[in-house]
Amino acid sequence: MKKIKLGIVGTGIAARDLHLPGLLELENKFEIVALFNRTKEKAIRFSNYLNNNPKIYDSYDELLDNVEAVDLALPVQLNYEFIEKALKKGVNVICEKPISVNVEEGKKIVELSRRYKNVVYIAENYRHFSAYDKIKELTSKIGEVYYLQWNLWIYMSKDNKYANTPWRQNPEHIGGFISDAGVHHVASMKKIFGDIKWVYGSVKNITDYLGGPDLLSSTFEFENGILGNYNVSYALDGKNVLMIKGELGDIIFEDDIIKVVKYKDKVIEYYDDYKTHDENSYKKEFEDFYEVINGKENNLGNTEEALKDLAFIEAAIKSNGEKRIYIDDLIR
Amino acid sequence: MKKIKLGIVGTGIAARDLHLPGLLELENKFEIVALFNRTKEKAIRFSNYLNNNPKIYDSYDELLDNVEAVDLALPVQLNYEFIEKALKKGVNVICEKPISVNVEEGKKIVELSRRYKNVVYIAENYRHFSAYDKIKELTSKIGEVYYLQWNLWIYMSKDNKYANTPWRQNPEHIGGFISDAGVHHVASMKKIFGDIKWVYGSVKNITDYLGGPDLLSSTFEFENGILGNYNVSYALDGKNVLMIKGELGDIIFEDDIIKVVKYKDKVIEYYDDYKTHDENSYKKEFEDFYEVINGKENNLGNTEEALKDLAFIEAAIKSNGEKRIYIDDLIR
């Protein structure tokens, strides 16, 4: 199959540290022919990482006339406008998660992806981690499952590179880090147990340097009836543990190791072949994007799934500690 | 000080396995002079554990005429009636938790305890565990505290002695085990961080042999602003972990060991002198009851505190997965 002429739009941290290492391994699939960044010097600096002298454009419109696909790694509030422009010019899009600043705008992106024949692929790298597929497979070992709990304590110091992005410090996207990072976790949970029916959430604001709330405790129910409890803070440190409880035991995912713990017969099985840190999920998402452009069904970069990821977080925030919100009521 | 003539009313599992071992160590404070049980043979059998030949009565009224205090260890739905009768006859009362079947009836018991001069002491043994005092003291080591989580997986098999009590199999008390055992946990959390403002809860019913729901996930807020998350099941097994998160680290209470974990300087301090299983909290509560009868303020057996313990659980159940309920709205 032929190489796709790709333009990278937004040459910040995500493009450089996350996407580029994957793309450099996919030189037989993508040729990075074009760069655009609002601050042109950043695009020039980015071009130094490449050997093929991509063209640096002064405008996004001009870039669109010279590529087959764009990789949008922009402040999230620009996603809608940039996706629409690309589609109008017949250009395929891969766009960093979250899909949008809120569900209302996300719905418009879903609409765009239905209206235009070109691909809109939301880059949710957690959907490409095989650990969550393995966890899903292992649930058969613990009998009927009743409860999932995910505690994530992702402490970010004042000098964290993401915390210092201006668009993250004064977020236009709902809940700040709670949605920005949170959609990853929702995507993973949905990968294991499917869609979520409703969410109740309560947030706190601990730090003054992380834009928006930085502690969330939420309860939710999967469509299949499993009760969930997702607790996350970007201001507090600690052990990150995903725990799934069934009638015969637990599945525990901690420190990149999956454990199956059976209490009655005291058996603990370890699975350490699913290390998310060793797995290039960004490369996988670009490979998948390539195949989707070439006709494969868009399951892992689907805008509707990305919208539901964000809807979980928006429901948790709008719940405001008071009452649960149904995902269907938000997204329909 | 003189010995108090005590009657034990309800000679079931709690009286035998929990209260009696403590009372036998307090022979200088209490003399068990009287027993009453609806099924008289059980009272006769119980008398075999004692050396002083207590009198076995055919009626509760008759017993009340011959004692200074009663220990009520009855199916919870009988608490109100039995407490009232004792007070009318000028008899002091120690009564097993929960205070009552629901908040409405609990409020009537609080009223009784205000109206009569004799003592009404609700026996909540968890309030007598020193581990929770130690945890409270250690919170100063982790800076400002933001979050508490308690996971309790207290699997009860079909042949569990408590699960087989008829009044527990067809509970008149709200939420079955969720309140019966749950008030212990609420009392402990309140001992650490004080009163609770509101509770949101969602329950599931996993087994058919435990009366009522047997899985609860709840979110709540202490009056001091700390967010809490209490998850408990009597149908699922697992590790019981109390985790308190502050700006500098965590306090973890697990397997009867208190750990202070500081993430930045990687310090872990262990405190293993507060083993709840080695501590005779029942003896302590009877000692305290004795002192309260002799004029000490009733802090640990206070009916108002016991009512608030139950109100947490009732709020969680009535919340019904839909919306949070304020404790004050329930108890006022």
UniProtKB/TrEMBL annotation, chains A, B:
Residues 4-122 form the Gfo/Idh/MocA-like oxidoreductase N-terminal domain. Gene3D superfamilies: Dihydrodipicolinate Reductase, domain 2, NAD(P)-binding Rossmann-like Domain. This is Gfo/Idh/MocA family oxidoreductase. It comes from Marinitoga aeolica. Signal peptide: none annotated. Residues 140-324 form the Gfo/Idh/MocA-like oxidoreductase C-terminal domain. It comes from the Bacteria. It holds the Pfam family GFO_IDH_MocA_C. InterPro entries: Gfo/Idh/MocA-like_OxRdtase_C (IPR004104), Gfo/Idh/MocA-like_OxRdtase_N (IPR000683), NAD(P)-bd_dom_sf (IPR036291).
